[in-house]
Amino acid sequence: MITSLFMAVISAAALFLHAMRYQPFSIDPRIYLLVAALVSLGVMVYKILIYPFAVSPLRHLPTPKGHWLLGQTVKQFRANSPHGAAVDWMLEFPEADLIRPLMLGNSESILVCSPRALKEVTQTHCYSFVKPKFLARTAEGIIGKGGICFAEGDVHRQQRRCFNVPFLVKNVKKSMPAMLAKGEQLANAIGETATGNDDIVEVSSLILKATIDIISKAVMGYEVDSLADASKSEFYLRTMDVMHLSTTDQIMLALDNFFPARKWIPIEANRRFLHAGKVISELLTDHVRKTIARIRQEPDAEKDLDSNHTDIFTMIVRELIERGDPLSEELLVCQLRTLMVGGHESTANSVVWCLHMLAIHPSVQTRLRAAIREVITEDSFTYESVNSIDYLDCVIKEVTRLYASCKASLPLHHEFVCSPLLTLSNQSCLCCAPLYMTSRYAALSYPLALC
């Protein structure tokens, strides 16, 4: 809409200048302003009232009824939860793979509902969708710029190949000792917190610290140990400054969608956020340099994945060196920040939701405890023994289905897609793929499909 208005004003100005060249005093300049207004009005009427309903190639998708100008924007603001409006749309079209909610000014968006549609967007045609620029600008202060999260096309393929071998199951299994040690430390911390508290025990912060310690140790090869004493861990404190946002931080985050508000608005919240990001980058840059120097100095006999350093990041650096790829410190720091943000927050949320569901379903808790004790002993606490508990696997899958740790994916469609399920033109259109909705797709044969 703004682009159309701008073009209308430019066109009217061009006409005005052209006329002034030949007839400088014959036409009142106000006429040109009127022409500009009429052209702008016509373009907006076309964009708002005609194109979405009579011309758009997406007009055949199910479209919820909304305001003639605001679309579904008001309904989204009035919803009782972030996904409340999407739930209503899915109930209105229970078997639709894709839904087209119209937003402000009847701008089009696509809601991905079914698992098979999600597969088409995130796997089959994943490179036909890109991350929106506003999202990349917003996330830059948290995970840096250039990492795998916002890489596209061939750059993403190249970076992903370097992650394939380190994230094989046989390599991830090598992190079990670190996870077991941190799990025992977490259990002791919860036990100390529960002493003298008969009613409610707050465990969310302890779980968050434990997951940060595990991700930093097992994935990054960086020792944090915030569970022992968080006040002494600079990395943990600065991570909390970045991840736990106040109301002011959330406003700045929203403004970042339109312009770099963090850098341009000199307030305390922005200074704290930028300082935290700078400190994290400095700490991780030093860690990257030490890791690269250590790997280059290793004897040839130790340059395999069975050496003492079994963290994922060490394996990634070894993979890059073996492939002969350049080692960019800035890119590696971005990868570390991406792994930390994508690993600790989602893991902590999943564990908290799992404990919550077990607390309100004591029969499931009792059965799960019995299934674990039947298999696990102090001597048999291995990856294979844990993986053999089928009921534990079912509980984890059901919790992550009902309460997905990742809220939604926001790919921006930018090129032609044609498949039995998706047929999209090359016109850019924002897609929303909320995992909360996909896991509750009405066609799935779950008794809690729309709870």
Relevant terms:
two-stranded antiparallel ribbon; 5% strand; 451 residues; mainly alpha; 8 strands; six-stranded mixed beta sheet; 59% helix; disordered C terminus; Cytochrome p450
Gist?
This protein has helices at about 1-20, 30-55, 75-80, 85-90, 115-125, 135-145, 155-165, 170, 175-195, 205-220, 235-245, 245-255, 260-265, 270-295, 310-325, 330-360, 360-375, 385, 390-400, 435-440, and strands spanning about 100, 110, 130, 410, 410-415, 415-420, 425, 430-435. The chain is mostly helical and about 450 residues long. This is Cytochrome P450.
Can you count the helices? 20
Write down the overall geometry. globular
C-alpha-based Rg, rounded: 27 Å
Q: Secondary-structure element order, as H and E?
A: HHHHEEHEHHHHHHHHHHHHHHEEEEEH
Mean pLDDT, to the nearest integer, reads 82
Number of strands: 8
Strand % is: under 5%
CATH class of the largest domain: Mainly Alpha
Helix/strand-derived category reads mainly alpha
Q: Determine the fraction of residues in helical runs and give it as a percent range.
A: 55-70%
Assigned CATH superfamily of the largest domain: Cytochrome P450
Could you tell me the CATH topology label of the largest domain.
Cytochrome p450
Question: In CATH terms, what is the architecture of the largest domain?
Answer: Orthogonal Bundle
